[in-house]
Amino acid sequence: MDAYIQKKNLDPSRIRFLFDGQRIMSDDTPEKMGIEDGDHIDCVQTQLGGAPVL
Questions:
Q1: Contact 33, 39 (CB under 8 A)
Q2: C-beta atoms surrounding 24 within 10 Å
Q3: In 1-54, where do the E strands start and end?
Q4: Could you give the CA distance from residue 20 to residue 35 in angstroms, rounded to a whole number?
Q5: What span, in angstroms and rounded, lies between the C-alpha atoms of 21 and 3?
Q6: Do the Cβ atoms of 4 and 45 come closer than 8 Å?
Q7: Is 5 exposed, middle or buried (0-12, 13-18, 19+ CB in 10 A)?
Q8: Cβ–Cβ < 8 Å for 32, 9
Q9: Of 18, 22, 14, 23, which Cα lies nearest the Cα of 41?
Q10: Which of 35, 43, 39, 34 has its CA nearest to residue 11?
Q11: What is the dihedral of CA 31, 32, 35, 40, to 10 degrees?
Q12: pLDDT tens, position by position, 1-54
């Protein structure tokens, strides 16, 4: 996760990684999450602030 954030020059406080809809925490391991070769991990960026669209 750290390598991806650095490679894409992202703000780590705004990035979330998910596997099967479950957030991956920094202390999680592939074994703990049940991640196997070929599985996909989602990366989402949170939005802070904004204004209502009228």
A1: no
A2: 19
A3: 15-19, 22-23, 42-45
A4: 9
A5: 21
A6: no
A7: middle
A8: no
A9: 18
A10: 43
A11: -140
A12: 999 999 999 999 999 999 999 999 999 999 999 999 999 999 999 887 777 777
Written as six digits, the tokens of 26 are: 């920094």
Token pair of 46 as six digits: 């949170």
What are the structure tokens assigned to 28, written together? 């999680």
Q: Are 2 and 26 in contact (CB under 8 A)?
A: no
The single-letter code of the amino acid at 42 is: D
Q: Which of 20, 13, 26 is nearest to 39 (CA)?
A: 20
Amino acid sitting at position 7: K
pLDDT of the residue at 37: 96
pTM of the model: 0.79
